[in-house]
Design brief:
73 residues, 32% strand, single chain, elongated, three-stranded antiparallel sheet, 1 helix, alpha+beta, 22% helix
Length: 73
């Protein structure tokens, strides 16, 4: 894996960590953190997949995010 590719993945991880995710199953208003962030290369681009477990209701879900490379800080 090239250093540039590693740097891009780290930037995507940092963007995901800066997002606010709430449980879609219960009324918990506490921000959740992803337990795992994985990457998938697809013909339409790179997708980041973040996995969550709600600390209140213990439901599990994943969020798939396509990185279009257009978000800047």
């Amino acid at each position: 894996m090239s250093n540039d590719h590693s740097r891009l993945k780290q930037e995507i991880i940092e963007r995901i960590k800066s997002m606010v995710f709430l449980c879609i199953y219960c009324n918990n208003q506490d921000r959740m953190t992803a337990s795992v962030i994985d990457f998938e290369n697809h013909y339409s681009g790179t997708h980041a997949i973040a996995f969550f477990i709600c600390p209140d209701c213990r439901n599990k879900f994943a969020v798939k995010i396509q990185d279009l490379g257009k978000v800047t800080t």
